[in-house]
């Protein structure tokens, strides 16, 4: 049975603390991430392997280990989109976008740099968020399994700019 487009509201709160300096934004949580109520929940997404490699840590498995990896390295996580109409996890199906209000993070953490995980996140950041925040963001190659042209090694190398 084909999936139908559904309006979805972002269910995961931002992950940051008073020491977060680098904000990493996805586009919108996948079906698996929404079910797990945590970022990058699809087992084929390479985000956690990239972050582990960059921080010289084992790949985190639990939400607690993932949270510790992010916060202990002064990162913050959230997404550009707060709600949208989406079919499954398909970024290309996204429409009716309402952006997340990133002031929730930037007003409470000393964020120095912002990076978007993939072109879709960057597209919506640039369209909706940058005009409000007045802060540019860099774009990173997507950690999604759909970005098959990028090997894990190439992703790790490209993502070094967040350090």
**General form:** globular
Radius of gyration: 15 Å
Contiguous uncertain segments of 5+ residues: none
Number of helix segments? 6
Remind me, CATH topology? Uracil-DNA Glycosylase, subunit E
Number of self-contained structural domains: 1
- Please provide the count of β strands: 7
Order of helices and strands: EEHHHEEEHEHEH
Mean pLDDT: 96
The top level CATH class name: Alpha Beta
Strand order in space, largest sheet: 3-2-6-7
| The CATH superfamily title | Uracil-DNA glycosylase-like domain
Q: Do you know the CATH architecture?
A: 3-Layer(aba) Sandwich
β content, as a range? 15-25%
The profile of the biggest β sheet is:
4 strands, parallel
Proportion in helices: 25-40%
Distance separating the two termini? 44 Å
Structural class call reads alpha/beta
Describe this structure in words.
This protein has 163 residues and is of the alpha/beta class. It has one domain: Uracil-DNA glycosylase-like domain (Uracil-DNA Glycosylase, subunit E, 3-Layer(aba) Sandwich). The protein has helices at 31-36, 47-55, 63-72, 103-106, 119-133, 152-159; strands at 5-9, 22-26, 75-79, 81-87, 95-99, 113-117, 138-140. The strands form 2 sheets. A 4-stranded parallel sheet has the order 3-2-6-7. Strand 6, helix 5 and strand 7 form a beta-alpha-beta unit. Helix 2 packs across helix 6. It is globular. The model has no long low-confidence stretch (mean pLDDT 96).
